[in-house]
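worker-03 picked up job from queue 'complexes'. Input manifest follows; two sequence lines, order preserved.
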Amino acid sequence: MQIILKNPLDMHLHLRDKDMLKAVAELSSKSFSAAIIMPNLLPPITTIEDVISYKKRVDEASKNTSFKPLMTLFFKNNYDFEFLKSAKEHIFAIKLYPAGITTNSQDGVNSIDSESLKDTLEAMSELEIPLCVHGESEGFVMDREKEFVPIYENLATNFPKLKIIMEHITTKDSADILDKYPNLYATITLHHLLITLDDVAGGMLKPHLFCKPIAKRYEDREALLNLALNAHPKVMFGSDSAPHPQDAKESCGCAAGVFTAPIALQVLVELFEKHSKLDNLQKFISDNAQKIYNFEPISKSVTLEKKPFIVPDAYGEVIPMYAGEKLKWSISSIS
Amino acid sequence: MQIILKNPLDMHLHLRDKDMLKAVAELSSKSFSAAIIMPNLLPPITTIEDVISYKKRVDEASKNTSFKPLMTLFFKNNYDFEFLKSAKEHIFAIKLYPAGITTNSQDGVNSIDSESLKDTLEAMSELEIPLCVHGESEGFVMDREKEFVPIYENLATNFPKLKIIMEHITTKDSADILDKYPNLYATITLHHLLITLDDVAGGMLKPHLFCKPIAKRYEDREALLNLALNAHPKVMFGSDSAPHPQDAKESCGCAAGVFTAPIALQVLVELFEKHSKLDNLQKFISDNAQKIYNFEPISKSVTLEKKPFIVPDAYGEVIPMYAGEKLKWSISSIS
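worker-03 finished. Artifact:
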């Protein structure tokens, strides 16, 4: 049994920099046609020069001409119209982080309200630059995304021409507002379709499943599955695959992030097959994103066959999700 | 500034066995007058011979004649009246674990209902053997204790003469039923008075703060603080201090348990002082437990003074809570 995925897209990817970039970029570039590359380096990507130079490093590391890194800027409220106009040809979107909310987000925005962000967001609206948002408050870890919902609603209402992507949604609350605002969209990760807090902390504590936003409750996962499996047209796959060295995960203070890039397609096929929704995977993995972002990716066909794939224990010093476990599907060819 | 604690009691302590027992027993025996020693070894303590032999090992390891280990049996539903009658002089209480709910609880009870446990619990009632309970369901990790509340209520109602101790309560739900049933009591740990899930998983993931039951929400911690700081007469200190080697905590599957035994008194004084409730600490740390269990501990005076204490980075291979941090109070003398 085979399935062919056309132009798979990862609409939320962390490739980091330097040695880590060199270690992981190829894994995504092999099986994806394009990926949105997150800008939360240290220091973050905030200038056109940063974007150009980071893209060059990504291209070199990905060693793959049939892969397009879709570059982003790290949102700063001092970006003016002229800057954004010049930046537009180099970027695909701008990513907004609340300050300090996740890995390397210290330089993010302290107060996200439509009044203080007005000039920048109006310029982005006019220039048709999409806004990707890490939507979490500073509240209790299980409530952070729920508490951010009014901020999404406020932004969506006040900037109706701005395309706003709720990144890596993890709750029913976020799923529920998706259809209320025409300009709201969402990405969903692989791991949030699979795990709940029980998998992270219900038995032994599993640092390799620790991520931000943290995995939530069963009813939340159910809401995400409902969107993804039915290929809701406003929802795209974004792995949020985030590599950390093993010793940064298995330590007295474990970094947030699940590494799924090299196994995402195989596991998605297994998941959609299990729910008898294989017909919808093409939309979730590529077509929806093309429509939402209005772009045409490099042509790439990934053929998967129902043949066991043993996930490596590690990719370099990074432990992937399902390390050492047997998946039902493997990638048999890419063209 | 000094404070003297008379006969401090730890009404819930894990000492484990073998090398770990030798490494940690002395730390509790030095500063506590007595402690209830949990029976969840591998295999668990289920016979009188087990109790006698484990007590001997604890006595040897604790190297301290002014410390009394209060031994327990691991609840099995086949304990009959005659067995319990013979066991009574050797034990202080019996600890009931739902099967598989925490460390070494595989041999626990699968279904906790008053009908199936009737014979054993009636025998315990008649013999006045207290029942200590790990009260968690098999549900979602944040709901497990809440879901166990009806079971506590059922047991308390059906066995009105049985002294039931809700061990290491972590939620407002448990706090709320304490006064509804005359035969319900509770222990509270140090760490559940201090942390919430935010401390475990809100920033970096902190394996050394991972415990079962998992730390809950702010309103839950508030309810526990309210009980402890006001020395509610049905509430006792029980550290649930649980040593694990560093490599069992900082790994791809981290064991549950926070190691607080050697720092508990110092931190409790700091906490009660901060809330201007120092006058109530004696009751929480000893007097309440003496009344609830109706016993008289070995006389011991622990003097603490307001002088910084730097918590060691490790006790042997065990990382304590607040490792390397500075506490405000230290133990100056024990007599």
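worker-03 released lock.
The mean pLDDT of chain B is 97.
Chain B has one domain: 2-334.
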